[in-house]
């Protein structure tokens, strides 16, 4: 299979994964964001303001017209069109990257077939890119975190995420070399343990996440964090499933064409 075929399949799979991720984010994550916005709105008013104790979605809907009048983006647009655009763009980007990475890994991971090696690359991507960063720097909903530290927090997050991906690439390369020598068990254990040890050490060395205010309720906080992880899992899971399926179909079609060509020449 050519890298171009992997890239096209990756973009198709990424588009589908982005749409599924939008559904997960909208139905699972958005209610927790509305609750957090309601808490933030309630905290910005005096305790005598009766509107500070209403439903989260009601507060978000009340704030939307004012934002739109001031030239901003309404909450409804953020949670629908804006969210869908974001998940689709991320899905396309990840699909293209995973597709190219799978093309590079093809034939270098022992005897794995194209679909299996593609699924393995997607699984490594989820752990290294999404899960590790979520554990070290779990996402926070609105009203949590200081605006003064957003730059430092963003830099630390992406720095840790980039390091995790680089270590994962090194682990895959090491696994491929060990597998080429016939060390099947070592080809799995050594890279996995090595990545886990190094990324844990990096996580301990980097700054900790900002503490969550004690007065912020635990239920919406962890509801938001878990919904974020579920959305990531849906994105990567659908990407792995669809891309490996497309790769399998393409590989079978190319094998059939080669067999037909060989039969014609014979």
From TrEMBL:
Region described as Disordered: spans on this chain: 41-76
Superkingdom of source: Bacteria
Compositional bias annotation for Basic and acidic residues: 42-62
Pfam families: CbtA (PF09490)
Keywords: Membrane, Transmembrane, Transmembrane helix
InterPro entries linked to this entry: CbtA_put
Protein's recorded name: CbtA family protein
Organism: Actinocorallia libanotica
Taxonomic lineage: Bacteria, Bacillati, Actinomycetota, Actinomycetes, Streptosporangiales
């Amino acid at each position: 299979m050519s890298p171009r075929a992997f890239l096209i399949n990756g973009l198709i799979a990424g588009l589908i994964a982005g749409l599924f991720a939008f559904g997960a984010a909208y139905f699972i994550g958005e209610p927790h964001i509305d609750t957090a916005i309601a808490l933030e709105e309630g905290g910005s008013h005096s305790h005598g303001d009766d509107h500070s104790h209403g439903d989260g979605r009601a507060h978000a809907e009340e704030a939307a017209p004012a934002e739109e009048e001031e030239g901003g983006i309404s909450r409804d647009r953020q949670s629908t069109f804006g969210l869908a655009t974001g998940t689709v763009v991320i899905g396309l980007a990840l699909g293209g990257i995973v597709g190219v990475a799978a093309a590079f890994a093809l034939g270098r991971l022992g005897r794995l077939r194209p679909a299996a090696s593609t699924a393995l690359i997607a699984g490594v991507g989820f752990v290294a890119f999404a899960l590790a960063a979520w554990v070290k720097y779990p996402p926070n909903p609105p009203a949590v975190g200081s605006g003064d530290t957003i730059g430092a927090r963003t830099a630390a997050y992406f720095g840790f995420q980039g390091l995790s991906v680089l270590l994962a690439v090194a682990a895959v390369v090491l696994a491929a070399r060990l597998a080429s020598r016939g060390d099947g068990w070592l080809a799995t254990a050594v890279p996995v343990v090595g990545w886990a040890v190094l990324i844990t050490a990096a996580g301990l060395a980097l700054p900790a996440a900002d503490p969550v205010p004690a007065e912020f309720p635990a239920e919406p906080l962890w509801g938001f964090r878990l919904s974020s992880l579920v959305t990531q899992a849906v994105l990567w899971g659908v990407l792995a499933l669809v891309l490996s399926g497309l790769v399998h179909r393409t590989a079978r079609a190319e094998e059939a064409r080669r067999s037909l060509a060989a039969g014609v020449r014979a």
